[in-house]
Amino acid sequence: MSEKPAKTAAEAAALKAKWSAMYDKCVEAKPMGAYFSLEELMEFGVAMSDTELLAICEELVSCNLFAVAMAKGSLRYLTRGKELAIKITGLQTDTRVVYSHIEASGTNGMWKRSLCQKTNMHDNRVVKAIRELMAKKLIREIKSAKAQNRRIYILSHLDPSEENTGGNFFSDGAMDTGLIEALGEFILRHIETHSWAEQKVPAGHKARGVKRKRNADDVPASADIEDLPMFKVPLGPNKHPLVPFPPSHRDYPTVSTIMDLIDESGVLKDVTLQEHDVKQLLGKLEYEELVEQVPNLDGQPPGYRSTRRVWDRHPGTVDWNRPLDPADDGVGPGDGFTQVPCGRCPVFKACRPGGVVSPETCEYFEPWLKF
Amino acid sequence: MKKRLSELLTFAVGDFYGEFHSRVFGALVENGRLPFRTLVAKSGLLPTQVRGALITLIQQSFVSFQTTDEGATNYDANWEKTYNFVIRSGKLLQLVKVRYGDAAGVVCEDLFEAGHARVGELIKERVSVKEKPASTKGGAVNGDGVNGVNGINGVHVNGVTEPEGHGPSPEQRRRALNKLVRAGLIVPLNERDMKSVEDLKRSAERNLIGTKYDHLPKTKKEKTNFALDTQQLLDGWRHESLRYFGDGEYSSIKRGNPFDEDSDDEYPAKRRKVHGRTNGVNAATGPHPETDLVVRLNFEKFDVLLRNQQLVKMAARYVGETTSKVYDALLRALETKTSRCYEPSLDHEAEDKEQPFVKTHDIVPYLDPNLDLNVGLYGEDVASEMNGHNDDDEEPVSRKRKQPSSDAQYKVEQHLRLLAYDPRQFVQSEGRDWRVPYRALTKRLLQSQIENHLTARYGTVAPRLIRVLFANGRLEDKNISKLALVPLKELREMLYVLQKAGFVESQEVPRDASRTVNRLVYLYFYDQIKARRVLLDDVYQAMARMLQRAETEKAKIQVVIDKSERTDVVGNEAKYLSKAEKVALERWNQTEEKLLRQVNRMDDLVAVVRDFYPMGPDDSNEELYG
Ligand code: SF4
């Protein structure tokens, strides 16, 4: 600094005009706290050369209107409000350093241990700084879904990032299963009513009613085994079978129609759902095999339809761990193995013929074999 | 060989043939290949007893033998063939009966019992007609239910319905046999067919070392090439025994196929049209042109049929019943072009690119004529949909023709399109040509079978986690939790259960280069092949338990059973058996039926999990973890 030639008053005034112009441009372009790269700043056309640009930035930093940050491997500046700048100017050096590190971490926040490492300061000094910042309400402590025991600090006006909250479905770092289930059920209901067409029975086929029935849909009590449908046929509101829409069908719900629906319905009070929240929920429903994606032939984003429902779903699927009733083959999940006692036997691994646990003496068979 | 599988097979062999057979088979299974002397020692039997048992076991291909250059003979158990005979025969016979008629069922049954036989022998009139009630035959797993013999239908399939108690006539047998040969279910026996899979592989390898290679492969690349060459040689050998219809030695008979004497297949009129053959030749009356040919059952082809059944079931579950029947017709139209479930030397993408096509009008003849094609389609809207904005139907012309056949074709295409646009992609189309991406689809089938199994066994969270891992590869528990939206605590509990059962695995990886312990990450992953092995092992054990329990139950009332089988009692049950005895017998019959039906169903699971898709590491989930 000392080697630099002293600025003349005129120069200083010109520089001040420039940096306040630069600041105004930045605030105009992006919300407060946003990042700017040098190229972006250059484009505002305030600085005429690289040297001048750096000089301007330096001034802004020293007034605490700019903060320095590294993002994506290169130098960035971020803007601060004027009031904030004044508050910061009043801080002790240690505190100011800690603040700028927390600030630079953005919505991710920063862990106390990392603060010590980055600032190269002793624990006590950092704690003291944090206390001061907390008292001035410049930062706050958050719980992170990532690491629930860590104390993470973040600027008080920022909302913690996805990574910390885990998204809208987490409160205080824990999963909000109530919200997830309720909303999942709401979405599923909606998708289900738009997924399958209720077959209208063509008039000409009434005469062959018997045959029709045997072909697929109803199950006459006395039907031959051969004619029984392999799966329970899902029925629509008018008790007619549900059949797939033709491939040209375009009206399956999509992420955006589902978002609109949620907004309009007002089911959510104080949460604003983002697109990725809805996607996350749809993902969950897909992993549950309750819904599936249907390709859209026009190159639009795929729609969602409910997976053909051939057995009853648990209401709300809250009772996660209860195995579904495997007794009825074909109309419930399960196979030849899960239908027999051995398929759910607690001592399966220990069982062998002639052993302490053995098929000859097994008591699980008695009730199962009863007719 | 796997412990559970050997336990199951050894037990079932004993059930069929008695203790000596079981002990000989068991000794081979337990110890691997053995020379005669050791076999005698291990089985604890007399040499004559062992010899006696070996005769049947070899005739049935349960055991194969090789004589070394030094003249020593070794014996080896052949589990694949054994499994098909002792566990699956009931199911296969049922399938044949439903599809090709009762006479075909009888021919197959005879061939099952004989292992292999001359054509002349198979079509000969039987002097004594065996009358077997469905369930007296020890542990023979007999179709799906009591009425295995009378068949669930077999009525409309063809006109061959024999009066009770009489076997089919030689002419019926002959027709049936011809049908089965044309279907590829019965094939000429080749010397190599008597060998076990491992043996064949060994001799292919020996063959290569002498010719194309002068040393055992050492580097990884050499090994890969060597494995590929081995497979190709095996494929070539296999082709030799199968090319009955092709350009092989048999085709010298100008008329074409000697088994093509008549073609009254399932839907005769249409069938003839399919082949474009004007084949008015009635069953010939002279001796069969191939009376001395020795034939065997072709289980590879049976697997194709079984797989198609399962694919149809999957279509019924996800799309609809009627559509699944159309799918069945498509798969049957393709059956003649599919000689086995997969080509071991091709990876799945390569194989699916080469799947054969079939045209819509070639599918129609395979439809059940009673099937109402309107069911399962979104009725009246279909036409307007098609007239409206449907751009990818290339030939709207056909719709305008009002002939019934083209109407059927149009409807069939509607159903097929539902299948093609289903997320599972049951079929692919190019205009009016349809093909089935069998390999990809089978993998899906297999996976959904596993998921279905886990749902029933552990509840709905388990398959959810498996799907997350299957779709995303290796993941930390936190990330699984986010994708599946299952709270961490619950998730960890379920992961623990699944890991203990062997369906999920985990791995520790350092988070960064420092490799310090507290920077380790636990990644969970799902290996489909491993899961299949675990599942199979459990199922084999449960199957064995069913058979073992059946034996226990039977022993309880053995006295009554013996009495009921006495010659003076048979036919006079009412007179000689007390009420309590009848009740006990009835109860035993029901018990056995219930136990065997479950074995049969478990075999369905085994087929999907084991037989339809390659099990080897060469086809591991590289697309997942690559
Ligand atoms: S036989 Fe009984 S004890 Fe043994 S595995 Fe089966 S259920 Fe369990």
Automatic annotation (TrEMBL), chain A:
<dbReference type="InterPro" id="IPR016049">
    <property type="entry name" value="RNA_pol_Rpc34-like"/>
</dbReference>
<keyword id="KW-0539">Nucleus</keyword>
<keyword id="KW-0804">Transcription</keyword>
<comment type="similarity">
    <text>Belongs to the eukaryotic RPC34/RPC39 RNA polymerase subunit family.</text>
</comment>
<dbReference type="GO" id="GO:0006383">
    <property type="term" value="P:transcription by RNA polymerase III"/>
</dbReference>
<dbReference type="InterPro" id="IPR036388">
    <property type="entry name" value="WH-like_DNA-bd_sf"/>
</dbReference>
<dbReference type="Pfam" id="PF05158">
    <property type="entry name" value="RNA_pol_Rpc34"/>
</dbReference>
<comment type="function">
    <text>DNA-dependent RNA polymerase catalyzes the transcription of DNA into RNA using the four ribonucleoside triphosphates as substrates. Specific peripheric component of RNA polymerase III which synthesizes small RNAs, such as 5S rRNA and tRNAs.</text>
</comment>
<dbReference type="InterPro" id="IPR036390">
    <property type="entry name" value="WH_DNA-bd_sf"/>
</dbReference>
<dbReference type="InterPro" id="IPR007832">
    <property type="entry name" value="RNA_pol_Rpc34"/>
</dbReference>
<protein>
    <recommendedName>
        <fullName>DNA-directed RNA polymerase III subunit RPC6</fullName>
    </recommendedName>
</protein>
<dbReference type="GO" id="GO:0005666">
    <property type="term" value="C:RNA polymerase III complex"/>
</dbReference>
<keyword id="KW-0240">DNA-directed RNA polymerase</keyword>
UniProtKB/TrEMBL annotation, chain B:
<dbReference type="InterPro" id="IPR036388">
    <property type="entry name" value="WH-like_DNA-bd_sf"/>
</dbReference>
<comment type="similarity">
    <text>Belongs to the RNA polymerase beta chain family.</text>
</comment>
<dbReference type="GO" id="GO:0003697">
    <property type="term" value="F:single-stranded DNA binding"/>
</dbReference>
<comment type="function">
    <text>DNA-dependent RNA polymerase catalyzes the transcription of DNA into RNA using the four ribonucleoside triphosphates as substrates. Specific core component of RNA polymerase III which synthesizes small RNAs, such as 5S rRNA and tRNAs.</text>
</comment>
<dbReference type="InterPro" id="IPR036390">
    <property type="entry name" value="WH_DNA-bd_sf"/>
</dbReference>
<keyword id="KW-0539">Nucleus</keyword>
<feature type="domain" description="RNA polymerase III subunit RPC82-related helix-turn-helix">
    <location>
        <begin position="13"/>
        <end position="65"/>
    </location>
</feature>
<dbReference type="InterPro" id="IPR008806">
    <property type="entry name" value="RNA_pol_III_Rpc82_C"/>
</dbReference>
<dbReference type="Pfam" id="PF22536">
    <property type="entry name" value="WHD_POLR3C"/>
</dbReference>
<dbReference type="GO" id="GO:0005666">
    <property type="term" value="C:RNA polymerase III complex"/>
</dbReference>
<dbReference type="InterPro" id="IPR039748">
    <property type="entry name" value="RPC3"/>
</dbReference>
<protein>
    <recommendedName>
        <fullName>DNA-directed RNA polymerase III subunit RPC3</fullName>
    </recommendedName>
</protein>
<feature type="region of interest" description="Disordered">
    <location>
        <begin position="255"/>
        <end position="289"/>
    </location>
</feature>
<feature type="region of interest" description="Disordered">
    <location>
        <begin position="383"/>
        <end position="409"/>
    </location>
</feature>
<dbReference type="InterPro" id="IPR013197">
    <property type="entry name" value="RNA_pol_III_RPC82-rel_HTH"/>
</dbReference>
<dbReference type="Pfam" id="PF05645">
    <property type="entry name" value="RNA_pol_Rpc82"/>
</dbReference>
<keyword id="KW-0804">Transcription</keyword>
<keyword id="KW-0240">DNA-directed RNA polymerase</keyword>
<dbReference type="GO" id="GO:0006351">
    <property type="term" value="P:DNA-templated transcription"/>
</dbReference>
<dbReference type="Pfam" id="PF08221">
    <property type="entry name" value="HTH_9"/>
</dbReference>
<feature type="domain" description="DNA-directed RNA polymerase III subunit RPC3 winged-helix">
    <location>
        <begin position="450"/>
        <end position="525"/>
    </location>
</feature>
<feature type="domain" description="RNA polymerase III Rpc82 C -terminal">
    <location>
        <begin position="176"/>
        <end position="445"/>
    </location>
</feature>
